[in-house]
Amino acid sequence: MIDYKKKLDTLSLQIKSIFSGHPIAIAGLIGFIIFVLTALLAPWIAPQNPYDLMILDIMDGLLPPLSKLGNGNTAWLGTDALGRDILSAVMYGLRLSLFVAFVAVSIGTTIGVILGLLAATKGGWVESVIMRAVDLKVSFPGILLALMMLAIFGTGVDKIIYALIIGVWASKARLTRSSALQEMQKEYIDAARISGIPSWRIMMKFLLPNSIAPVLVMVPMALSGAIGAEATLSFLGVGVPITEPSLGLLIANGNDYLLSGKWWISIFPGIILVLLVLCINVVADRVREFNNPYLKHQDRQ
Amino acid sequence: MNKSQVLQIKNLTVSYPLDSEKNAELKALDDISINLNAAEIIGIVGESGAGKSTIGKAVLGLLDPPAKMLAGEIKLLGKSMIGLNETQYESLRGNQIGYIYQNPMTALNPVLTIGEQIIEAIEANTNMSGKDSYNFAIHLLERADVSFAKDRLQKYPHQLSGGLCQRIVFAIAIAAKPKLIIADEPTTALDVTVQNSVLQTLIKLSKEEEIAIILITHDIGVVSETCDYVYVLKNGKHIEQGETVEVLEKPKQQYTKSLMASVPLIEKRLHRFSLPNSNSEINSLNLDYLKEERNIEFSSQQAILQIKNISKTFFTPASIFKPSEAFEAVRNVSFSVKRGETVGIVGESGSGKSTIGRMILGLEDLTAGSIIYQGQDLSNISNNEERLKHQLSMQCIFQDPFSSLNPRMTAGENITYGLKIHKLIDANKAKSLAEDLMEIVGLKKEDANKLPHAFSGGERQRIGIARALGYRPDFIFCDEPTSALDVSVQANLLNLLKDLQDQFSLTLLFVSHDLAVIRQMCDKVIVMKDGKALEKGNNDDIFESPQHNYTKSLLDSMPKFSGIATN
Amino acid sequence: MKHINFKTVCFVGFLASMMGSVYADTLRMAYSVAPKTIDPYKSSASATASLNEHVYEALVSRTNEKLLATSYGWTDDTTLVVNLRKGVKFHNGADFTAEDVIYSSCRMMYRVDGKKNMLTSAMGPVTDVVAIDDHTVAFKTVGLYPILIQKLKSLSILDSGDADLGATLKFDNTGDCGITRYPTKAEFESGKYANGTGKYKYESFANTGDAALVRNDNYWGEPGNWDRVEMTSVENSGARMAGLLAGDYDLIENPTGEDLLALEGNPAYSYSTMPSWRTIFLILDVGSDVAPGVTAADGSNPLKDIRVRQALSLSIDRDAIVDKLMGGNATVASQFAPSYQDGADSSMPNMAYDADKARQLLAEAGYSDSISIDLRMPTGKYQNGKRVGQAIAQYWSRIGIQVNLVAEPWSVFRKGRSARELGVFMYGWGHPQGPSQMISYAFGTRDKALNLGGSNYSNYTDPDYDAAMRAWAVETDEAKAFEYNQEAMRIAVRDLPGIPLYYQHSIWAHKSDISVSGRPDERTFADMATKN
Amino acid sequence: MISYITKRLWQSGLLAFIMSLIVFLGMYVVGDPVEMLSEEDWTEQDKIELAIELGLDKPLHEQYLNFAGDIIQGDFGVSFVHNRPVLDLIVERLPATLEIAVLAMVIGLSIGIPLGIYSGIKNNSRGSRIISFFSTIGYSTPNFWQAILLIMVFAVFLKWLPASGRGLTNSMFGIEWAWLSLDGLKHMTLPAINLAIYKICMQQRLAKSGTQEILYQEYMTFARAKGITRNRIIRRHLLRNILIPIVTITGLEVGGLIAFSTVTETIFSWPGIGKLLLDSIHMVDRPVVVAYLILITLMFVFINFIVDVMYAFLDPRIRHQK
Description:
Strand content of chain D: under 5%
CATH superfamily of the largest domain in chain D: MetI-like
Radius of gyration of chain B: 26 Å
CATH superfamily of the largest domain in chain B: P-loop containing nucleotide triphosphate hydrolases
Helix content of chain D: over 70%
Largest sheet of chain B: 6 strands, mixed
Oligomer: heterotetramer
Radius of gyration of chain D: 24 Å
CATH topology of the largest domain in chain B: Rossmann fold
Order of helices and strands of chain D: HHHHHHHEEHHHHHHH
CATH class of the largest domain in chain D: Mainly Alpha
Helix content of chain B: 25-40%
Largest sheet of chain D: 2 strands, antiparallel
Strand content of chain B: 15-25%
Shape of chain B: globular
CATH architecture of the largest domain in chain B: 3-Layer(aba) Sandwich
Distance between the termini of chain B: 35 Å
Number of strands of chain B: 20
CATH class of the largest domain in chain B: Alpha Beta
């Protein structure tokens, strides 16, 4: 029934029409793809597994870039205090940061979309409860949340993901609700209602596909937001475990050495973090601009 | 009167690039020439996509960026306007050329007062300032027949009615005594009763101020009442031009002829619009599905639907500046509909006509009263299955072709989705049924697996009709089903509805603001205003000897067009 | 920071601020933690005590210098007699006498809103404080309480004239003492009664912990080194260092080891270190049948086996940690308290490093590659803590132990510790009382009467150890007490209910035009610094 | 209006209640205040006495009821750590946060909006692209990383500005302010810039998208057709209209700045309430955290209210709803 090849063609055509003529956005997309590939392939291409404490040696600590390690390898970007190769640490940190953000954003968005749809379709107390919960979340500091999660569930990457999910869902629920409410004004929803179609089917088959676009458009931004949030939490010391540093934790570790001239520990992960988020946001901006009806006609220039 | 030439357009061609890579382009205007003298009103008539509005924009130098003027000459008062820069255009706009929009509400800035907006225009185009411009603003409003001009200067646009706002737009347009006004569908957004007087004001201004006016419209009635001379356009191409009476009543071109034949007339009720290719082909199709299991318990003499004293009150949400307020949309309305007949409800916007339909369909709760359908009070059915059966035998054709279909489902899925859910048909027969229904409503069966955006407005409305037919309904509520369509598309669709009604003995409740459409479609007519049913009666009675003053004023304000002269 | 009176117009304030930084000899210090109050009894937190030490003095200093006492001794098992210094004046000009000591003891016992002061329970065994003459006081205790003199190191002496004394001043355990009005905390903070005998006098104090002091020219001994001292607190170590480099401060405490590297090669700045009394060590749950977070293949608690504990200790290269991670600003430990602190057995050898032997011991114990340990530690608490934790995890994983390092905020860590959910954790301890203090609480069987073993998270019990500590607890002869204590320490190092790592050094970074000789108790005092 | 306000108050009261409950329980889970306040050499009796002193000996629900009862009477309790009324602590720290928040917002608005309008009008021009690119960088970089770089550049290398602390404060209306002295202003600059960078970028983006939306409204074309000049169109027709969405977001942003500028305050050791919150969380100072968040919740409710009023002020359509 569904012609996948055709869908793929349409998709690639759409990607082409979004990006053609926008060199910065293309650069962002390519950069992002490189980052994702690096993250995926890190265990195979990184010179060292920085999470394996066995092979780290503090005698290799704090070496500047291009130094030789005790085992004869070269630390292209230097090492940190524990003898971690910064290049490897950045690759693994990228992997962890991206993983955490991807998982948190996808789960958080899914939850947010479902709650937003429920709020829009059910109305009444369901809507009140969901939307008040959104309000509550907005006036709740992320750091306290992270600390609470840490206390209740213990430390670990999964706990950070939980904390980030809680950070993500609310705005998505709000957006989905308003988009779904707008969609519900349309006559095809009335048509479905007078045809006695059950409300959960209306929700999933009619509302969901038609009101999700504004949420999807925000996903890349949520992704970069989650990466930044994870970095900030790690920086404040309530993030990922210290033995498995993400980009944020690497920066935090290196931050201690910034004044002492051991710049490489903090600067490299910092640059990668900024580039990563920048790439995502450049792409996100372009996607949003493309979807903005007010820009569309002038965009064809 | 000095009939000096104000505007001359020669061989104007405007194109939009479609795809920058393939050099494809769409000619919005193709070799158009127009002449216009002072104090003259010319009409530019055409259906959507004809390029009417592009002419106005080209003259004002306001073509939206990707559009390009490829060829031609535009001369204002003998001076060429080609190659003017933005500053030069700015001095022309307002000063020499005024512009009037379709929707006055969006043309006025919502956050500035009327006074600010008029005075700004006066000061930009004259040497007046301070008290002088204030007085002149009052003068202008009075010229545009705005009463209580002084008070209205303090108001914001949303505080005034559409008709008043359009007059204010007129006042702004004549602020600098322009030689030319371009009016783009100036009365389309207004209620019928207001349309006429607004048009009269426009004519008056044209004659008194010696302003030449280009009136861009799709409404043949408006043209026949207003214009001295008319140009007919189709797809950017010039079709026909001439004195208004000549073109409207004795069109020479086939397109113009069919266009005129599509205009619903108010004077007499026709069996069908006399369109080319309008022979019904329904009889030749496979109609078994639609014909089986028809509910024929009710003879045509019995009322299939009885509306008893229904009312509906809405409550506005409370906000910081006002508490929740009640709004009575429908007040104590009663009527009944017999099997096979078409009852029309006519009224202006806000009269409550659609709300009645929504209550019948169960989309809104009743505040008071009862609805009896096929002998049963709908609010008293406790059995879910029975309720569903009743519900499915009532269907609706919606107003907006662009929102009445689920954009993520193909045409066929849109038609059969509900049928499959309720297991009214086998899933494996859905495809062929969808194709049959597509053919019945005059579409190609292979188009059933296209998505809605691939269809035009008229085609979408047909898909909507097919969707309704799929439930084998006894009763269909038609909620302004043609108000968003071009007149020729409307005529075709109305013919189709009539054919279907004959074929399946459908009962229709037809809601419209357009008296002429109601005249053509309905057996009985109900006139509504402010939620109340003012008058009920048979079609001929209402249109030929209306009793209520409001009905009379409605009929009076209809633009007069009596169709192609029949020899 | 200088605070301008309410009524003063802004531009005068501006001028004053300009003057503030051109004082002839002003020392601007940045603390790492904000002092909470200038009422000396309300908080024993180190930063608060550091500030208060400038203004108030105790009888004996934490480094055992005689301050307001000239000599002291137990005349019997329950009487401590202290001879007071003569000719000392408070900042307000009042003479210092025995009555001030009694009054100060009373205020320490006096509860505002039922709230205790820092020594209220430590002085619980004191039944009476009496003036033998104007410059001699006697502390009476309910029983043997040899560490009273250690506790009194924290009793700042206040002027009894600042309170409304009743007809007679008579010490009692509630602090009533016949006194009708005590100065309040607010009155200390406003400066009204911030009246001590210290080297510096109150000038201003803000709730943010910022304070300014001026030299007490009538000090009984060598007067202060500085005309004026401004202190502020900057918790973020990087910001503190940046502030020093930006010229905001003359002296900062606790720069990170990493930041010190920034000072190298910059002649305008230097730093001074001082071995502190803080020992960093690990605690192992050696008593429980199942230690939380510690598993072995056979389900037992491997930490019960002394060979495992020895292996854990031997696997750690403390020299590498001290050199590479601590930048040399630490001393390899030989025991659970600094070997250089009074009362320690300085002859004990440093903890050894022998990874091969560690592996061998593990194998002998039958635990090769079968132990998994959650190593828990607080974040942001100890110099380089996170890195040291990771280094230990590195060393242990090299002898075939699977280590899961869990670093958590202090609050979460402390809660887990008090719930005894931590099987192996890192901790730091330092106290002026000397080596005895740590091991009296950390190890050994709980003895409420003698206040022993209160923090025994190792669940360690040993009769010889307990005997030594019980004897120590009631020994008023200092030399003998030291011996008991050393005996207990040797047993602890033999049995390893914990693993000593190193002694932290305190560090101060400062401008090169001043020199600093630090203190071992991690406090920062203006007179540590002298202008070159 | 009365019923509307009543409803709002009721809702926000409920919100504050739920918030207090969550935080109360949350802080209970995070740590034990007695553990945080006790020294290693304390006896069990000492700890019990401290718990009694702090009211922590009672069952949790009773603790909450006592706390809630006090709050209703306007008593926010006494900090465990500082031993002072919570309200005093917050009021004392508030000016410090307010002054950098306001400065950051002023910088953000006064730079961001003009840049946004420019890049909205001249979309696709070189200038607009450059502005948007830098805006994206500013927007993408985590706040703490910007702070570190600011300190490195302006405090350490250039030595132009102090890196931490609030500097000299002067008194006005009985409150200590840093902005009244040159020294204080210098200390304010870096943290305020740190907060402002994000605001500039955000305002630029908001104003840009607002401009592009408004630019294609018919009344804008009509205004051009009326013959008024471009400048006037921007000043009168555009600015008034784009301010409406900007006001909403700005309201919430000011709230966020005041409430949660934790990271900036921590890195620059700025003694504001954001830092108070973080310290209090770390020290399990429950009364401070709970009271703080209740107050913040109420502040957001209040800000929402102000935003509604501002809305009506800017948008006559809302003002005249009948």
